[in-house]
Amino acid sequence: MSVARRFTVAFALWLVAFAVLAADLPRAKPESVGLSSERLESIRKVIGAKVDAGEIPGYVALVARHGKVVYFEAYGVQNPNTKKPMSRDAIFRIYSMTKPITSVAAMILVEEGKIKLADPVSMYLPELANLTVATNAATAKDSAEVQTRPAKNPIRVVDLLLHTSGFTYGFFKPFPGGGQVEQMYLDGGVNDLDITNAELVTRISKLPLKYEPGTTWWYSRSTDVLGRLIEVVSGMTLGEFFEKRISKPLGMSDTAFQVAPGKVARLVEPFDDDKKGLTLLYTDPTKPVKFEAGGQGLTSTVMDYARFAHMLLNRGSLDGTRILGKKTVELMTTDQVGPGIDHGPFFLPGQSHGYGLLGAVRTEGPRAPAPLNPMDGSVGEYYWAGYAGTYFWVDPKEELVGVVMTQSVKQLLPLATTFKTLVVQSIVE
Fold this sequence. Notes:
Blueprint: H1 3-22, H2 37-40, H3 42-52, E1 58-65, E2 68-79, E3 84-85, E4 92-93, H4 98-111, E5 132-134, E6 148-150, H5 157-162, H6 180-187, H7 197-205, H8 222-234, H9 238-250, E7 299-300, H10 302-313, E8 317-318, E9 321-322, H11 326-332, E10 353-355, E11 360-362, E12 382-386, E13 390-395, E14 400-405, H12 412-424
Antiparallel strand pairs: 1-2, 1-14, 2-3, 4-7, 5-6, 8-9, 10-11, 11-12, 12-13, 13-14
Helix pairs in contact: 3-12, 4-8, 4-9, 7-8
């Protein structure tokens, strides 16, 4: 090999190594940022015990303060069948932790003046004009008995961000507040994965709303519809927009709707029995993805999501790259539901919390534990989680970021609350 050739190869390898390093976050000892190393070790002791007891296959956890990673650990196995050890760069199905990324994408378009929060969604998705609202969904014995009336309010862009659109999820039928509208979603194929974002909007447009738009918080397909709106306005697929405007600029190299062939070996799998009897099935992101669902479709790593979280903590920028303006992030991470909107029978953020344009926001000192957030924490912190066992939160007051991921629907709630408690108790300064 010639000298020039060797130099070219060496330089290319250096670029690859630099790219890897550039996508990482600075490291520090816990004590240098006011955390206790000894107390942080309780993460391994407590959550690791869940692995040893066979409750979860494995996990990856990251804790950062003042922009520096002080704890980053992988424990257990990545695949229960092959027993492959968990690695820190393992790739997880993050389900609803896709939603904050979709929200950021929408706000990029808002900042550019291409959409407005108060715009009727039908300006961009005309199928969603002239919708109807179910009036007796809770009492109707079957879908044929559901009575409707014309919606009084249009669905606005902000309603998609806030889950006040009136849409629902079909899999909510057995949950508190679920009923015949949810059954109509199931019958109408809204839960199908073999559809495009455009087909989803077409199908959902033919169904009644569960609530009058702008009146009630109800977790729903809102963010999936928002994903389609982003496609229409940007002229790109949702995946292309994510890559161009968020993932690539932030160095989130492992965040995508489909796991690239060369990365499939890093995909985390759940226990076989964790796939059974579930209303929302585990997806297979190793195959081409038709439905790039803004509410549930992404795969990612703990480090990738930590970079996204730090962009939010830094009010829109990371490593000199600005994604959003400061005031936009402040708006997104402030409660926008307030007392004027009914919280509905299944308000996921829980007591002492509201909901912003990004996820749950703590609005007051704790009166009771929230479903995914224990009582300890700070006013102003925000968080969200993914169906299959992923969770993150950002505490601006403490300049703290926590991310934990496993693949277990059954263990999401105990994992999230335990992890946060263990991290918070490690703060000593």
